[in-house]
Amino acid sequence: MKTAEQTRPHRSYRGVVGVGTAFGTFGELLQGTVPEPDGDFLVTLPIARWSMATFRSDPYSRELRVEPAHKTKALRLTEMIIDATGADTGGVLTLESGLPEGKGMASSSADLVATARAVSNALRADLPCRRIEEMLRRIEPTDGVLYPGVVAYHHRTVRLRAYLGTLPQLTVIAIDEGGQVDTIAFNRIPKPFSPADKREYARLLDRLGAAVRAGDVAAVGEVATRSAIMNQVLQPKRTLAPMLDICAAHGGLGVVNAHSGTTLGVLLDTADPDYPDKMVAIASDCYALAGNVSAYCALTFEGPS
């Protein structure tokens, strides 16, 4: 007969592994305030860069750790999910990301959404989007990366405003002005927008929604450009004017801005017959302007899930 010690699982066993991913965004197609309560909003531009979270549960320990250790917000979310589900476990959360921090590419939001998916997968817990949003709301303002496609999102109160649709294949040729921006601190800045500004943001949001649904990438670029210009009163980009010139000189769709970050870029339609030549010319001018240049592919989706 086996003893209790012999029938007990070996302590090297570390429970169930869950993996989750979340895409980032290149800034926002539009960000501002409309004339209504909880009027602060943004519109996402999903890109093919991701955060990946892996949670390895440990039923023999109540200790929770995160790697890298500075990802304390993800650790807090892990604790919240375990408490909410009543799971009796510890574990290790590991985060890997292709999204730079403090640049306005939703790195923190992607980390948190990937974490929620990884932990819920490991615990076999069904966490709908609204339940995840309730937890995220207690941590920080959050981008709309929880949802596929282009969405209008109330980032300060962490709730979906509207699903706008999906875009055809687009590319952003981008520069980074350097440094980092604290998104939480940025969202505490009083918005100096007048009632006329708020009405303009409402019109821009309506126009952008119609443009996304119609696949009108020229109108999408025009709205993005206007949003970048209006944001200069909050987080000014010293290179915005020359980037507008580069866009105009080479026939870009518009300039996309990381409203609470350090990056901005020229939006291009990959279906444009002149796309290869435009991409090379814009990239060359961007490098001459900033000493750095990157290319990001916008994600396309089949539809809302």
Summarize the structure.
The protein is of the alpha+beta class and 305 residues long.
Level of helix content? 25-40%
The secondary structure category is alpha+beta
Global morphology: globular
The major β-sheet equals: 6 strands, mixed
Defining traits:
305 residues; alpha+beta; 6-stranded mixed beta sheet; 9 helices; 36% helix; globular; disordered N terminus
What would your notes on this structure say?
With 305 residues, the chain is α+β, with helices and mostly antiparallel strands. It is built from 9 helices and 10 strands. The strands form 2 sheets. Strands 1, 2, 3, 4, 5 and 6 form a 6-stranded mixed β-sheet that branches. A hairpin with a 4-residue loop joins β5 and β6 (159-165). α2 packs parallel to α3, α6 (195-214) runs antiparallel to α7 (217-230) and α8 runs antiparallel to α9.
